[in-house]
Write a structure and sequence with these properties.
Blueprint (H helix, E strand, L loop, with lengths): L1 H23 L4 H9 L2 H27 L8 H10 L2 H24 L1
Helix pairs in contact: 1-5, 3-4, 4-5
Length: 111
């Protein structure tokens, strides 16, 4: 459970905050993004964020391949990452941790 707890707490907290902000927003997500990219100072932060998101996407792909999964299995996480950045990798970590836990439980039952 340790490997799932921190990303799960972060996922629930951040996704909940994101949903509440989106319901209160006075503009669309696209308009918000265009506004951020219209100034050099906020554009720098957005570019930095998406560079990190790209690195997280590469890591998710490589991690899935290392675990014997298809590279296509990370597409849903990459799509979520493209829109909500942190939510994709956090969700990937939670699902990966739950799969590890289930696999460890299956291995213990066979012993």
């Amino acid at each position: 459970m340790k490997s799932v707890a921190l990303p799960l707490i972060a996922l629930i907290a951040f996704a909940g905050y994101t949903v509440s902000v989106m319901f209160q927003a006075e503009q669309s997500l696209i308009d918000f993004g265009i506004g951020l990219m219209s100034r050099p100072d906020t554009a720098q932060v957005v570019i930095d964020l998406y560079l990190l998101a790209t690195l997280a996407g590469v890591w998710m792909y490589q991690d899935a391949r290392k675990r014997g999964q298809s590279g296509l299995s990370v597409i849903p996480y990459l799509l979520i990452t493209a829109v909500f950045v942190s939510v994709g990798p956090l969700l990937y970590l939670v699902v990966r941790g739950l799969k590890n836990r289930r696999n460890c439980g299956d291995a213990r039952q066979r012993v």
